[in-house]
Amino acid sequence: MSEVLREAARLAEAGEPFALATVVNVRRPASARRGDRGLVTADGALVGWVGGACSEPIVVREALRAVAEGTPRLVRIGPPGTHAGPGEEIVCAESHCASEGVVEVLIEPQRPAPLLAVVGDGPAARTLAELARTIGWRVTSDAAAGAEAIVVATMGTGDDEALATALALSADYVALVASARRAGVVLSRLREHGVPEEQLAHVRSPAGLDLGPCTQEEIAVAVLAELVAWRHARAPAAAAPAEAVDPVCGMTVSVEGATATVEYEGTTYFFCCPHCRAAFLEEPARYAQPAAT
Prior knowledge:
Elements: H1 2-14, E1 18-27, E2 37-41, E3 46-48, H2 56-69, E4 73-78, E5 91-94, E6 102-110, E7 115-119, H3 123-134, E8 138-140, E9 149-152, H4 159-167, E10 173-176, H5 180-192, H6 197-200, E11 203-204, H7 216-233, E12 243-245, E13 252-254, E14 261-264, E15 267-270, H8 274-282, H9 284-287
Parallel strand pairs: 4-5, 7-8, 7-9, 9-10, 10-11
Antiparallel strand pairs: 1-2, 1-6, 2-3, 4-6, 12-13, 14-15
């Protein structure tokens, strides 16, 4: 458990996605116990314990799906015929484990909060950084740190340079805290210096929701409100995980992080466990996909 929690803290600090997997119910015989916990990284590695070789590939597969979708799920792993009861919101997965026990695992995806770069040192910038941290966002003052959102709040001190730097990066959200008139002047100067029009069109200014005349601190609130709306409106960043079907048992397994694989006649095969891999190696012609004609 301590190993899982330490790894979770490290990944959260680094802004990397992962999923926690907790065994919440067990029907014997099964090697897992209620309360056993694991962590699945974005590359499919499993830290901790959620059961043996029959449960692990299913947990990894469902964890990567949960991270991609951003939604938790309860997974029931059991022998062939395992199904959900009336009204149950649960993912059922068949295991070919000889023990025929049943394990239920709660999988909770942990996707990193957006990284916000706040460039500037005035009241609006300081308040925005403080408020963003309060709601769990990661905040930096370095626009080049890989931020997904950049707010330039230099308030007339190096606006052109700061905004040009922000536009040269791949941030999804770029805003300039300035009046409409001043923003027009800054954008005009950047245009004269060769900044492409499509980049200039990406700038949001005046930044934030229109709340009328505001104090610097209120401007920060308006910008944060717009950032929250932007975060919830944008499409999920995670791509669906690559998967393959074990040719021996028919289980769908995650390609990411797979260790039980075989290269045969130019095709890579993925397996849920070493046992299926060994069975394939004994009779590859039986399980291999027919060559395309």
